[in-house]
Design a protein that fits this description.
Number of strands: 13
Strand content: 25-35%
InterPro entries: EgtC, EgtC-like, EgtC_Actinobacteria, Gamma-glu_amide_hydrolase, GATase_2_dom, Ntn_hydrolases_N
Shape: globular
CATH architecture: 4-Layer Sandwich
Catalytic activity: gamma-L-glutamyl-hercynylcysteine S-oxide + H2O = S-(hercyn-2-yl)-L-cysteine S-oxide + L-glutamate
Oligomer: single chain
Keywords: Glutamine amidotransferase, Hydrolase
EC number: 3.5.1.118
Order of helices and strands: EHHEEHEEEHHHHEEEEEEE
CATH topology: Glutamine Phosphoribosylpyrophosphate, subunit 1, domain 1
Organism: Sphaerimonospora cavernae
Largest sheet: 7 strands, antiparallel
Structural class: alpha+beta
Strand order of the largest sheet: 3-2-4-1-10-9-11
CATH class: Alpha Beta
């Protein structure tokens, strides 16, 4: 129900990753090619990026469609980065609008996105939410399924979990509580990327010519080097290495 992308690599303009590719995230907001659920991603967007002098990323988020935002066009034209995470949103019914509900969500050095839907939200996962510290619930950025997913992931990260297990365990927990949920999760700290393919499309591309790895809901061009990640798989990546680990579905 969204499209998202993470980039690690040589210093590039944001626009060279998000808006210049013929099928980039900008175009995916109104004409995605591989999206299985929904057709338009116009319920908000966001981009987070890292500067070399600061491990805490900057973010720009808005509640409207990315194609109608002239400020984004200016930012994409002039800002350079070695790492980013961006998303365009198609909202789950019954969730908040507004830019606070648009990915990427953030805490410290982390950026996070969720492509999918928690089935039966919020009732199906009320017990999962009850397991969080009260401060985590009070700090939710928005009343939406993705914000709760992020709180569950962040709780694991703060407890010392590595990025891959934090995503995999959260996906398994939510899938057990809310069967049929789509839980493509994406996380970066500017040096590594972790992602789950769980119910929707996920691809990666290694670009040695710019020392880069790209992880995305769908390819932004027709480069034959794009590789589709099998469903129920955990991806972890650096600029030079990609690892895929099968994940088990929870028992019914």
């Amino acid at each position: 129900m969204c499209r998202q992308i993470a980039y690690l690599g040589d210093d590039v303009l944001i626009g060279s990753v998000l808006s210049e590719p013929v099928h980039g995230l900008l175009r995916q907001s109104w004409r995605p090619r591989r999206q299985r659920y929904g057709t338009v991603n116009a319920d908000g967007f966001g981009v987070g990026w890292y500067a070399p002098w600061d491990p805490v990323p900057a973010r720009y988020r808005r509640s409207g469609p990315i194609w109608a935002d002239p400020v984004f066009a200016d930012l994409a034209r002039v800002i350079r980065t070695r790492a980013l995470l961006a998303a365009v949103r198609s909202a789950t019914e019954g969730t908040d609008g507004g830019e606070s509900a648009a990915a990427p969500f953030a805490s410290g050095r982390w950026l996070f996105g969720h492509n999918g839907k928690v089935e039966g939200w919020p009732h199906a996962v009320a017990k999962n939410a009850a397991g969080l510290p009260s401060v985590a619930l009070l700090e939710l950025e928005a009343r939406c399924d993705s914000a709760l997913v992020w709180a569950l992931v962040l709780h694991r990260l703060d407890a010392g979990a590595a990025p891959g297990p934090a995503l995999a365990d959260t996906a398994a927990e939510l899938a057990a509580a809310a069967p049929g949920s789509r839980l493509n999760l994406l996380l970066t700290d500017g040096d590594t990327v972790a992602a789950t393919a769980w119910g929707d499309s996920l691809y990666y591309l290694v670009e040695p010519e710019r020392g880069a790895v790209v992880v995305a809901s769908e390819p932004y061009d027709d480069d034959p080097r794009w590789i589709e990640v099998p469903d129920h798989t955990l991806l972890t990546a650096t600029r030079t290495d990609v690892c895929l680990t099968p994940l088990k579905e929870p028992p019914l």
